[in-house]
Amino acid sequence: MISFGRLAKKPWIWSWIAAFVVWFATIMVTGGASTLGLSQAALTFAAFSIIVGIGQMFVITLGPGNIDLSVPATMTLAGTVALKLMNVDNSMVVPGLLVAVLIGVAVGVGNYALIKALRIPPIIATLSMSFIVQSAAIWTNRGLRIKPPAVLADFTTSSTLGVPNVALVALGLSLIAWVLLEKSVYGRWISAIGQSMAAARMAGIPVDGARFVTYLFCAVLASVAGYLLACFSGGAALNMGAEYLLMSIAVVVIGGTAVAGGDSNVPGIWGASLFMFLVVSMLNTYGIGAGIRLIMTGLIIISVIMLAGGRRTGMR
Amino acid sequence: MKLRLTSDAMRLLIPALSMTVLLAAVFWLQPRAMSYFGLNLLLNLAVPIALATIAQMLVMAVNDLDLSIGAFVSFVACVTATFLRDAPLIGTLILAGAVGVYALIGVVIYLRNLPSIVVTLGMSFVWAGLAVLMLPAPGGQAPDWVRWLMTVKPPLMPMAIVASIVIAIVAHLIVMRSSLGVLIRGVGGNQRSVERAGWSIIAARAAAYGLAGLFAVAAGIALVGLTTSADANIALRYTLLSIAGVILGGGEFTGGRVSPIGAVIGALTLTLAGSFLSFLRISPDWQIGAQGAILIIVLALRLVFNRVEKRGARP
Asked: Which of A74, A305, A307, A313 to mutate to test the interface with B (most CBs of B within 10 A)?
């Protein structure tokens, strides 16, 4: 059982176990009838949290105080503008995606410019930025709900070989993120910065450049998630990013990434995202009302962090 | 001693300055606002925000961050509009229990060495759930005494200003003048040395969180006094507003460097920013964005100011 012992030491294993337990508890109630449907729905909805969560994880890796609060606003703006540009035209799919990514780049540059030039704590910088981005989204949206092009709507709501397409996109992005984090020098850099910025600077790591790229990466992932989510849900809504602020932070932490920074992992994001969706659907299956469901979600987040937490000092 | 006093005063200068400029701009655009009634209308909604900002500031003083304030204030608003009116005793007990939970969270975060962001994030779901259970749809009614308190018209100054001044003084006395306040800020500054000096960190953190809960309860009650009814989502934006208010008022994220008077001024500034824009006839679409822009401008001013100050300090 050496391999199991090694597995149990991985920080991400707990979120996977939790997700599996909840999944099992749900299909037991329904008598196994909805196994496939539930799994597909979980993968689909988790995919959005995964994409956003990976970006947030990179930012959190940078150390205490690093957090991106502009994620929901970026998602909304990217989704709105992209759908408006595409205007139900199938040939505009790629330009739409490019515009969404450009918006992500702009927000990321803006975020880091504020952090660096004004020396504002990242929380406040991204918060101020999100106010502006949210306003821009309200201004462009104007209450109109433009449908996504048919190609994209089909793509985001269908599956390939039984796996939802959005989950495949999330898988692709996760692989890139994993390679970046575990195999590239950039991943080593941001982990080092998260453990000690002063030490990283003395070791000759380009701290500013690495942090800049990280905030850029997070904003771009958020805008891609917004683009996909807007197509998936048949149009952009102004509040469509709202729940992803708390969700993106929650999946990172439940996934076993150290909140103090410097120690991250990609698989945990998957386990945690699946877990968060499955908890909600389990409580729905049991026929529990919205109030109790919220309370249970909160208590579960706190219990997970209490079981997994306390690894490191100096975190917020 | 003299130097420290001036640096504290300096810290307040920018928040005070930005509020004055904003107020002057509002008066210039709309001279009718320069009356008892006009000022009350302008600043009414600042009172609950100011109370929530003080609550956030107390948590930030011990180097933590509370992401559950908005949900908690909504919860309190729901309790106020239902239980506190119909069964005052039960309502009071619920609110006292909620303050107790806040203190408990502060202790748990310390004992288990948990990240406050995540724990309060989880608690925000709990408070929101409880609020939804109590008021699934907007409704309830403010107790008469609360309504009276928020609409009373004292002579000379409108209630909103009187309340803001009282909040600022009370918070200042607690945080800056009492030994408990020094202890709380000490925990934020250097927890280990406070501990070695023989103080109980648990008690200090419980006190900081408990006081924060108390101020947040006051915020919820004041809010219901203004709106007359409640809703489970009534104050969700207070979480971000309160953080912005503390920072605008010269507080910092770490090191226990906070300023209660500044926090109240920060809350007033944020409220004024909204009115200022509607007087400018800027489309309501851009109101949130302009609040963000004002936040950025004030922080930029502070940076410039700090540099000048540093240059002045060097001989």
From this structure: A305
Size (chain B), residues: 315
Indicate which CATH number applies to the domain containing A133.
1.10.3470
Average per-residue pLDDT for chain A: 81
Residue pair A54/A255 in contact (Cβ under 8 Å)? The answer is no
Instruction: List pLDDT tens digits, range B105-132.
Output: 999 988 887 878 888 888 998 999 999 9
pLDDT digits (tens, 9 = 90+) for A176-223: 988 888 888 888 888 888 888 888 888 888 888 888 999 998 999 999
Residues in chain A: 316
Residue whose structure tokens are 């330009």: A95
* Chain A residue nearest residue B132, CA to CA: A291
Taking the CA of residue A134 and the nearest CA in chain B, the distance in Å comes to: 7
Q: CA–CA separation, A152 vs A96, rounded Å?
A: 11
**Is the model's pLDDT at A31 over the cut of 90?**
no
Q: Is A164 helix (H, G, I), strand (E, B) or coil?
A: strand
B167-189: average pLDDT:
89
Q: Are strands A163-164 and A159-160 parallel, antiparallel or unpaired?
A: antiparallel
Domain that holds residue A287: 36-308
Interchain CB distance below 8 Å, A65 and B63: no
Task: Count other C-beta atoms under 10 Å from residue A194's C-beta.
Answer: 25
B283 in Cβ contact with A139 (< 8 Å): yes
- The CATH code belonging to domain B36-305 is 1.10.3470
Cβ <8 Å between A121 and B247: yes
CA atoms within 13 A on the CB side of B277: 18
**Strand, helix or coil for residue A145:** coil
Phi, psi dihedral angles at A66 (to 5 degrees): -85, 115
Residue A181 located in a structural domain = yes
Provide the 3-class DSSP secondary structure of residue B230.
strand
pLDDT in the model for residue A9: 66
Q: Kindly state whether residue A13 falls inside one of the protein's structural domains.
A: no
